[in-house]
């Protein structure tokens, strides 16, 4: 078994962790605010000190070697220890501090999280909150985000999963669109209409295959963004499925077949298992879940 001749310092491990999570010198350098050449030199120095290769350059970027995988486990423990130390010394009882990043599907990110996070920020003026609104899954293991809001619980990974709340979706159209067409009384009567929905090959979870619930495979107007779909509907371009909590933000849009069709889905909060000892994250998770639950209920009552 190889013995490393020196003990790593945290600054070196921070560079190592960032490259391991980003697979690219340029992306790691951007996150660390270092130029890529400096990141490369720091890694080379680390490898020389250890007498072992930690990365191998592959067609997809920098991949960890076996020794790199072993170091990764220790580096992540060191990161957690530094976070715990920072918490202990920063007076967290006086309020949340630092930066927290949330990854979320753009339905939640556009119509729920801004209000919820604004309230949390007002109560914690030293807290910086980032919302990454993307219609895809986030890698918490690579620290793309501290928290992720998901529409289905993952089946793999070292994650803590907490159900946030249920929410509903409905068929909807602009009042101006409905006024130009005959009344719709059955789901079957939707077929001749211009349908708005997700780009089929960009559906990232079966939970968002809403049109499949009404037997429609390919919408005529498609986007990977819920917000784009909602604005198309508001402009009277066609009929689609919207979150009920988005309706208060879409004046002039009404449900279609409200007594015949409604979908029930759920939001889940995902966290990396290693973060369960971080009181800062625990307190933020509690505020976020409670805030989202109340905000969805409030918006659905208005819709």
UniProtKB/TrEMBL annotation:
Residues in a coiled coil are: 68-95
Signal peptide range equals: none
Pfam families the record matches: HTH_1, LysR_substrate
Q: Does the keyword Transcription apply?
A: yes
Going by the UniProt record, its keywords in alphabetical order are: Coiled coil, DNA-binding, Transcription, Transcription regulation
Q: Name one GO biological process term.
A: DNA-templated transcription
Which Gene3D superfamilies has this protein been placed in? 3.40.190.290, Winged helix-like DNA-binding domain superfamily/Winged helix DNA-binding domain
**Domain HTH lysR-type: from-to ranges:** 8-65
Query: Where on the tree of life does the source sit, at the highest rank?
Result: Bacteria
Keyword Transcription regulation among record annotations: yes
Q: What Gene Ontology molecular function terms does this protein carry?
A: DNA-binding transcription factor activity; sequence-specific DNA binding
Q: Which InterPro entries match?
A: LysR-type_TF_proteobact-type, LysR_HTH_N, LysR_subst-bd, WH-like_DNA-bd_sf, WH_DNA-bd_sf
Q: Which family does it belong to?
A: Belongs to the LysR transcriptional regulatory family.
- PANTHER family in the cross-refs: HTH-TYPE TRANSCRIPTIONAL REGULATOR, TRANSCRIPTIONAL REGULATORY PROTEIN
Q: What is this protein called?
A: Transcriptional regulator, LysR family
Query: Which organism encodes this protein?
Result: Cognatishimia maritima
